[in-house]
Specification:
The chain is of the alpha+beta class and 431 residues long. It is 28% helix and 34% strand. It has three domains: 3-84, no CATH class; 88-250, no CATH class; 259-416, no CATH class. The chain is globular and about 80 Å long.
Amino acid sequence: MNNEIKEIATSVYKYLGMEINEFITDRLEELNATIFMPKDNTRGIGGVIVGDDKTHLTCGSLYPIEYYIEEFKKGKRDNKVENTNLSDEDKDDNIYEYEFIPYKKIGNILLDKVDDKNFQPNGVPFLEEQSFNHVVCRAIAIDSPETKRRGKEKYVYIIYDNQKVALTCSFVHFVHNIGQICEDAVIIDDADNLTKEKWKIVYSKKIGIIAYANQFNDDKDYYIQAIHFTGKDAFNDSISEIENKNKIRSEIMDESFSSQAVINNEFDYSNVVPTIEAISYLVQYCDQMNKQLTKLVEEDEEKNKQFKSEYKDYMYKKSYGQEFQVYIKEKSYNNITCNDFESFSSAVKGGNLNQVTGLDIKLCMDFLRGKEEKLEEHENLFTIIFNPYDIKFARKSNHNDPNMNKVEEQINSILKQFPVANSIFCNKQNQ
């Protein structure tokens, strides 16, 4: 084997922060290339394809090895060979190493400060203290494709538990790298409902790191925009938000079979105390459900655009019955209708919930399902009516849909968390 080709594979792994001395190789004669895989492959690393022309492509564990072979065949390459073969003297000017203790410190920036009274943001190359106990690495500035093209990439490492781990904007490489120091990395697919931009999030509770990556233009690869190092409280707050959003999305993604049925359920919560905080949480959940259904409808419509009408098949097609409203009935008869959580929050801030005679929440999750020529209406109406000493939650559906059953269960769960005040007028609550 050409030693120079092996040296390229070794240098790529070294660039990723890994010292690999023994490889398993597989020759790809039709591509004039060789795959190098670590003999001790306990870190989930796919390998490196190195061509006889000294170009190379790093293979991740997110896709089968055949995916990367096909990408290599199409001309996909990681970077310019000359950049991985910089002299040690040249590299010294571009290397940044920072000691990392999860939830405690990154470099000379502490992550466990307890007093923010005199907080002043600190910063070192590639690490910016964005807020109290919250440091951000703008990974896109380290080794983005454009940075590599101009030969300006840097080498940024964190030193954790005597291991050197490279920070990089390549999502696949970054996942590999942190796999050296943690086994609990979680990857979540995300999307912006407004811009339709696709994102990936990876985080580890063990080392307290969260990274956000998106795609550039039509590139299939994901590039990390920011890597977050935080204190324990800040990390838990961020992860709680991420996991809750992912849970909400999954709640109505189940495409299980739903049978026709007549569902007309009602629950009495007349002895709960409808505080503004408790109602706000309920409104936020209902708004999220409405937006998630809208997203599913839009994705389904986009998926079916390519087909002729006779071949269109919908799981979630728009129904004009779908809507979400919060109706605030003020004592002054200046009634207010809110169509999302943002407008409801504005009403709360404006003092519109201080003197009310009642409040109605209406979540109508109607949609159409089936072939274009034979669409079936799925009706799902959830209402929560708040009147003094008379609070009712009702659901009406014409299908026994597992997804809508979950919505009903969650609304009941939220209502059961409201404070309770039994009185001589009402001393019952659904168990």
